[in-house]
Predict the structure.
Amino acid sequence: MNHTDDNDVFVPGELIGKLSEAYQALLERSLAWRDISDADHHAGYEVFVPTFDTDDTQRRSLAARQQAVTESTGLTIDDALDREFGAGLICASKAVVSAVDAMNKAKSDFKDTVMEIRALASGQPSVSRDKYLKKAMKSAGIQTLHLRECYRHIRIMPPNLEVFAWTWATSHARIQKLSFDGAVKLAEGLRDRDEMLADMAIDILHKRCSPDEILARRVPLPNQMRANYAYREDGELIRNSCPLSGVVIAQQKTLPRLVWRPNPVWSDSQPARLPRESIMEKDPLIEVLALYRYVHHDR
């Protein structure tokens, strides 16, 4: 089957209907949280959105809560482009916690339906899994959805939260292993921008590496927001940490002790780091490709 057009694939009508229903359920759960959020603020439930404003009072305002909830319930590509803050702690009543939990469940149901549609491509190597999904979303009239936002759960913290500190995982990267032939193919891809650069990269590979050598490509990742937190359970203080992808919910009326640290990339000065032993050589083999040799490579 050729894959030049979405019309080349067939998505059963019941799956399109299921996708539409899953989206409608997700939208309803998202709006339900928005509808009852303000009542929590008026009832004295606190909030802290550190990037809403430089003024601490504004960071704890109703406007900060509204903006954080709006961004947390956006489902479209435009909504994702408009996201500004991405960090915050919202104290919530049982009603709001229940609403957020229901929204998270709707997100899981929606993702399960998406995976079911993508599975239609199984056994058809010439057809992209995304082609079935694109066809289904277009048929359901929801092609402007941002799938990552539709999948992203809002983290609900444990009760009796006492300490919450934002932190950042920095200077981390994904290491991609490459065979010699794979590295040569990667270098060949440079020809579209610079023939001489491609020839130089290939020459370096042949002169310095053996044909059976495994190389590493270091793909930098953006700083990841994380939280260090502590909560009390049965009288015991329990400490933990977790990754964050936006605002989180605290199941209590008052804020815990907070420590906000902005993303280091927002600052001109970077903290000093202790050197760490690496499995890769310090200097790249081919800098433009972020290609490295392993320390104990075979020649």
Observations:
- The radius of gyration is 24 Å.
